[in-house]
Amino acid sequence: MQILFKNKAQADFFTTLYSRIRKYGAIPTGITQNVETLAAVEEGRKLLSNSEFMILLKQKPQDLAILKEIVNLTDKQIRYLARPKAKGTGLIVAGPVVVPFENPIPKNTKLYNLVATDA
Hints:
Helix content: 40-55%
Protein name: Tn5252 Orf26
Shape: globular
Mean pLDDT: 88
Low-confidence stretches: none
InterPro entries: P-loop_NTPase
Number of helices: 6
Radius of gyration: 16 Å
């Protein structure tokens, strides 16, 4: 998603598209590795703050500061994202509810081989 917020025209288009999709009852879905890039523009901040559902994994310090402000995460929740116990550990944000989760995938499985990115 961060690529779509690099200039004003793209950000406006994507924000409008997201709103239209929601208007018709669909569920727009976006993935980003860099919250800071999205939050650097007003449209991106609005998109993040209006997102009712998020799955958050390990984050860098600058992204954690932004998420703490926008999503209203507690210091304990921030620590959970800063120093997760293992890969597959994070927070699920569903409206005002924030739930920690652990979902490691055993290394000796086909699923691990399909989704692992740490070559």
